[in-house]
Amino acid sequence: MSRLPRGRQFFANPGPTNIPDSILHAVAHVTVDFNDPAFLKVYDACIEGLKRVLKTRQHLLMYTASGHGAWEASLVNLMSPGDLVLILETGNFSESWARMAEGLGVRVQTVPADWRRGIDIAAVRAALDADTAREIKAVCVVHNETATGMSLPVGEVRAAMDAASHPALLLVDTISSLGSIDFRMDEWGVDCAVGGSQKGLMLPTGMSFTGVSDKALEAHKSAKLAKHYFNWTVMLGRRHKGFVGTVPTTLFYGLQESLRRIEEEGLEQVFARHTRLAEAVRRCVRHWSGNNGPQLFCLTPSRVSDSVTAVLMPEGHDAEAIRRTCMGMFNVSLGGGLSRLNGQVFRIGHLGDLNEPMVLGTLASVEMALQLNGVPHASGGVAAAMAFLAEAAKSA
């Protein structure tokens, strides 16, 4: 039975995410000429601020597109027909990136992984060592797999590439990690970092970007895949590097406010807040797992995501029923299972603009939904989260 929703919706989907009021107000900006000197100051400040979040001093190219557009830009600007890329399996989004590559005429080799445990870095090294002809042109990594609630250690992937003395480019999807989980483009030797506006940056969907290394720009010069809107050569010749068409000025005013909020809190403090709130969610789910209840999908403690938690339902119980109850009765929006996990997991997003009451309200609604749907679980998960957060507040 559903009710008419009252109060502000608790949006606990892992993307898009909540947009703070101050960013909504910033986006509601009058139309301006994107060549106006006043706007160019905003544009330049946003580029430099976004580089600080990426932790890079290299190049940044922007697109009016979702993260998928930036995925495509990374491939068409760096690959030629028949080139080989190595995809590290993480879940739905690594599979999607692989399908895109194949659709563009790029060959794909996959390092397989158990979605609940994650990739074996030794298997990555073995695949690189076996490539004696050095056919692999790029290694493609999803830093944070939204479908499974698992992060991948990018620094360890780079170490495996260096140990194998492999010249491949390192391409990393940061879409659900950037601004929520530490990312170090230059330190980790990332050649192309793919990002989007609608997650940790707390913006509307529609802006994406690639951080690009000098090595990648050199490789771009000989890349033969067809491109036009995403052509880096064309973009680099323009004042607004990254826009072949009209610049989305209103999103830049939003990005300016997003970066102000992030830097006012402090980037490392942003990461610490995400870790704290994510751990509260995990403690709640671990408690629910008693009595053969729902459990964390990710089984590798060192790789649990600080931006999204995937919750695996007990056999015979439908995750979509929990989502329907949360939305219909409590006005709480959860993420659903993607790809092969449809109906098996629901996902709690805890990234971007959120705090302790928002997380606890979401968890309380889920615990009520478990009870209403007759799902076995150990009650008291919310109390476990509260106890952790209260203790964390004491030491803050």
UniProtKB/TrEMBL annotation:
Record Pfam families: Aminotran_5 (PF00266)
Transferase found in the keyword field: yes
GO molecular-function terms, A-Z: alanine-glyoxylate transaminase activity; L-serine-pyruvate transaminase activity
Amino acids binding substrate: R347
Residue numbers carrying N6-(pyridoxal phosphate)lysine: K199
Cofactor requirement: pyridoxal 5'-phosphate
Name used for this protein in its record: Aminotransferase class V-fold PLP-dependent enzyme
Provenance organism: Limobrevibacterium gyesilva
